[in-house]
Amino acid sequence: MSKKFEGIIAYPVTPFMANGAIDVDMLTELIDRLIDSGVHAIAPLGSTGESAYLSDDEWETAARSSVAAVAGRVPTVVGISELTTLGAIKRARFAQRVGADAIMVLPISYWKLTEAEIIAHYAAIGDSVSIPIMLYNNPATSGIDMQPELIARICKEVPSVTMVKESTGDLQRMHRLKQLTNGTIPFYNGSNPLAFAALNAGAAGWCTAAPNLNAELPLALYDAIKRNDILAARATFEKVLPLLQFIVKVGLPTSVKAGLALQGIEAGEPRLPLRPLTPAALEDLSGILANLEGTPKTSASIA
Amino acid sequence: MSKKFEGIIAYPVTPFMANGAIDVDMLTELIDRLIDSGVHAIAPLGSTGESAYLSDDEWETAARSSVAAVAGRVPTVVGISELTTLGAIKRARFAQRVGADAIMVLPISYWKLTEAEIIAHYAAIGDSVSIPIMLYNNPATSGIDMQPELIARICKEVPSVTMVKESTGDLQRMHRLKQLTNGTIPFYNGSNPLAFAALNAGAAGWCTAAPNLNAELPLALYDAIKRNDILAARATFEKVLPLLQFIVKVGLPTSVKAGLALQGIEAGEPRLPLRPLTPAALEDLSGILANLEGTPKTSASIA
Amino acid sequence: MSKKFEGIIAYPVTPFMANGAIDVDMLTELIDRLIDSGVHAIAPLGSTGESAYLSDDEWETAARSSVAAVAGRVPTVVGISELTTLGAIKRARFAQRVGADAIMVLPISYWKLTEAEIIAHYAAIGDSVSIPIMLYNNPATSGIDMQPELIARICKEVPSVTMVKESTGDLQRMHRLKQLTNGTIPFYNGSNPLAFAALNAGAAGWCTAAPNLNAELPLALYDAIKRNDILAARATFEKVLPLLQFIVKVGLPTSVKAGLALQGIEAGEPRLPLRPLTPAALEDLSGILANLEGTPKTSASIA
Amino acid sequence: MSKKFEGIIAYPVTPFMANGAIDVDMLTELIDRLIDSGVHAIAPLGSTGESAYLSDDEWETAARSSVAAVAGRVPTVVGISELTTLGAIKRARFAQRVGADAIMVLPISYWKLTEAEIIAHYAAIGDSVSIPIMLYNNPATSGIDMQPELIARICKEVPSVTMVKESTGDLQRMHRLKQLTNGTIPFYNGSNPLAFAALNAGAAGWCTAAPNLNAELPLALYDAIKRNDILAARATFEKVLPLLQFIVKVGLPTSVKAGLALQGIEAGEPRLPLRPLTPAALEDLSGILANLEGTPKTSASIA
Q1: How many domains does chain D have?
Q2: In this structure, is residue D127 part of a structural domain?
Q3: Can you tell me the ipTM of this complex?
């Protein structure tokens, strides 16, 4: 039976050495650190992992090393965002071969795709592997926007698609997806500032890069929701929100790598054309991280 | 001291007689019915009240009759959405004279306004009355989008502005407003499908036309949030959501008047060019209302 | 037979006296000045005329006075942008009674209208008068966007609608409208910076407030197009473009009234919340107007 | 001295054999056919050439073969749209080495780029080659929108950037770019339905895939503009417009390859997830191509 994805799904960055190559040792260390902090699953090669900027060889190295580093302690879902169907199938098979528990598939558009083309893309990938697929909707990076109606149809027509990650930041889509699938398809939130609302709305998990810099608060938020405690969840979310706002505004690889360096961890710089944080932004981030240290205070009243 | 606005703030429609005139008796009856159902405040002459479609005389009739009908049982906030500053001042003074507890002010744009023009508009209205102002942001109907930064500035520079109604449906603006005002300015949700998320995020109230057709579920949602019970709140919200989706999609006056007729209450039709529901849409609404009758079931698990 | 609208259709501002009342003498003078400058038609009570900000009485005064001032020297089209169908009919009849040659009808939305509602709105107005209707599409101010397909359908179903003014600034809509109507419906450009392209594409005229400040260049542009001279048209357009960019950016009533004042004509200020130009913007406008004085130079080459 | 790009710049598709490999012989034939038809320049590896869907090896094969096929008969500009700066530099050098006269550079975003990052990207590429760069703005496919102000700044700071291709379809940007650069930087239109307006506005050329299916009309349009004949240009444009509308709506590789097959040229199918035209769409295209055969009729009047 396949492993269950629930809770805080953490996205490691892909660390580079000074010569530009992937730093496999550091990648292993980053994943250990995330698992030690208590996150519920690991998702290598997501947007945070700069997967779009890697060569084929690098991608395979990162996928293999990440699954090996996780070593079955928590479930692993490997991100696949390829322009061509054949390219996606090749990576899907590779991910399965090296032991991923699931793949997260983002259809990428250069040319706009019809609904039939999107469905066929998922079906072809589903036919090529036996591990489950998390459908990933993120039009801001992929250029393809799948409405809840289309997503529900894909879930019905492609049996391997058993999970949905929504990153539009539009809460109504989650409600709509739940209505359309009668609650049978777990959905995951990929929009950091929407985490509190999405978990309230019943999201099975939160896909996030934040645990690279602070895992305690995302985990506390998830626990508060599971304990049915709005007040604690709100207070926790408001405490972590400045960090979420910052990493979304600046971009995940850039901000997370800068934050790791502030914490003494050398994960290198993002790939050009992405550039390191400016000194002013670095100071902002430093202040935000320092503010996370205190205890979240509980709101006294709701309204 | 001014009355406090908290909870479910209900927006009555403006009923018309066959000859097109306002049906004051029915307006009184509708308001009685809302208050009897337990709503916490009444907001005549909002979007739902077709205020934009009324002549000056009709507007004054509706304002005077509504405040009289409420008769102090709950707080009353009268909606003002005028293109000119002088027109808005005239209505603001009228609302105060007939006994409104507050006014809700939406700046309307034909020509785009600068920030300085918007601030001056609020300041001039604030100077003309002594009752508090609820700033209302609803770019979809007004053509003016006030970002949280501008709203926070208006709250600071115009002391009469002590409440904010946000209707963009963008939850992040509520979080941002709370950050910018250190939580000192109560905010209200005006986007029906966002009600659950907004109340979770700390909204002081929910401005809604839904209670015209069903007050029990909105009140139950608000109570569940006050009881700190996510599961009950979510189940209640999911139950009422199809009604909210319908009235937002079709338009509030059109759908609420049709729903009232289904419930045996003759509030007339909306003004042309708005037209009554088609028979097919009426049947949909009838089914949605019938489904609201059962008891909200509690979700068994959160994620 | 109805008069033909072709060429430069000029939009006068509505001048106000210090006490806020319409300055009928100045309105007459402004219209005389426009006609003397050679424009081909006059369009009172457009957006430029602040018609949205006028009371019913003021609107009737402006309509009656404008048509009287034109006195048949050129065709007159009176703008009507009313929220309710009955209100639009009332104004349409008034415009016909005082002698307008045509009316320009912009459907205004507070609540979004269905296609059936928009068509019925035009049909009801068409039934109430015998003068032709120029359909006006300007979603930025009206909140209603009529696609070419809908416009073509209205032209077919409502015989009074014999002209179309397009103000979206989307040139493709003009091509599409021409395709859909087989070139039988003349279209007019209402987006100032698109004037050159629209006339090239075959627009019957250009609806513009620019002649209040400079009629010579718009007329020269139109003449160059009629002479089939791209080079002269382009050079003329590039000369007047900074003025068009300025008045669109700042807003027509505000910028035109400021420009008139610079030219020694006291048309008053726009109505609050609109405010006069800042000194810096006034200086920009002054520079732009000064630059229009020289002769347009002809581009030496096309590419 | 570098070759001048002016007029109709044609974009060949990249033909594939049944086994998926690039069909180099057919690519050569397609380029011969385009040059024989009279186009003024060839642009391999643009969007039409499915460059985003090619492996590194395939891209190099297509670049080398295309430049060889052109054999200096007309100028060649090779398209480069790479996510990483290092990848773009590698391809730029390759293009120069195999004899391209210029490169067309589209910055691609997965993560949003700051202005500083975009400028540095162009500067690094400019430093790596000695042939001129055509900056390419196409936010719909690249996810990065460069405003005219930024483009003008890049032209100033990066001397190799001597041409600009604008594909937003926003005519005002071309006027603005001309204003900002005092007409010193030639601009090219990349939005097919805007071709007539852009050439009127002074575009140095039109970058288009249409000549794969019909070169006569685009060339006739360009000639009419050069002859300063609006009427002939308009009539020609209106004749070819249905083809332009179709290929833009359906997508360039898909529609052009289908059209070539209708003309008896086997260029294969686009790469999955792109799929061949449906039979209904193919019939539409067939009708459109048949209609292009007659002589463009001249409009009798302008308005």
Answers
A1: 1
A2: yes
A3: 0.93
